[in-house]
Amino acid sequence: MSHTAFPYIQAQQQQSFVLVPEQEWRMVLEGLTRRVDDLERNLDEDIKGTAAAAKFAGVSVRTLQNERDRPGTLIQFKKVGRAVSYSRKSLIAYKQSKRLRVAS
Fold this sequence. Notes:
mainly alpha; 3-stranded antiparallel β-sheet; 4 helices; DNA-binding protein; coiled coil
């Protein structure tokens, strides 16, 4: 009997399990937690310079400058004299807002 004859019958997917001693699992979990904390701290660091920020955001320097000056922009920046630094979090939010959305 084939499943095509009965479309309401779906093959069950098998699940795999890995057994790890609890102490080893706790060590792995602590390491992952530290790594996530480090990554979150790095998100708070600013990117110095328009060229570096543009490269990070995946846009041209001119596009970043135009976007920076646009009212209501997601991009947060600080300007001290001629030096400009950009919020890494805001550049990530900007990149995500520009992704194409596929209709489902």
